[in-house]
Known about the structure:
The chain has helices at 2-20, 26-80, 82-89, 99-106, and strands at residues 111-117, 120-127, 130-135, 138-144. It is α+β, with helices and mostly antiparallel strands. Strands 1-2-3-4 form a four-stranded antiparallel β-sheet, with no helix packed on it. Strand 2 and strand 3 form a beta hairpin.
Amino acid sequence: MRRIFIPLFLIVNSIIFSQSEIKISQERYNFLVDSLTNEKSNLLNEKSALLKQIDSLKQSITKLTENVESARIKQLIKKYGKENGSRIAKGQVWKGMKEKMLEDSWGKPDKITKNKEKWGLFTQWYYGEITYFFKNGEMIGWEQKSEK
Length: 148
């Protein structure tokens, strides 16, 4: 960009200066107009090439994203079986789900609290406004804070 700015600056200054008091020849004027026209054409060609590259990169990103999601689903199905793996990939939640399943589905929670009781370990996982309750690593329910 710097390479373009300096010549354009000089050309524009030359034109402005020439219009103030000193007249330039028709030949010089035509040269300056041709230079600007050529520079504009070059910039439009560069813009077109860059837009094509952007489109190509967007297509690559889309394909890579699809490949990553497909690999993730395959990995979850291999780890948890077809039914549970598919449900986890879709972000579904159900009673009886294990803690690791929820983490594989929703990611790490915002916060975890644990309470050891005589009947076992009671854990709460917080995701924003939703709290999931686990007893000994198995989901027993959830609660969503209601807006007041």
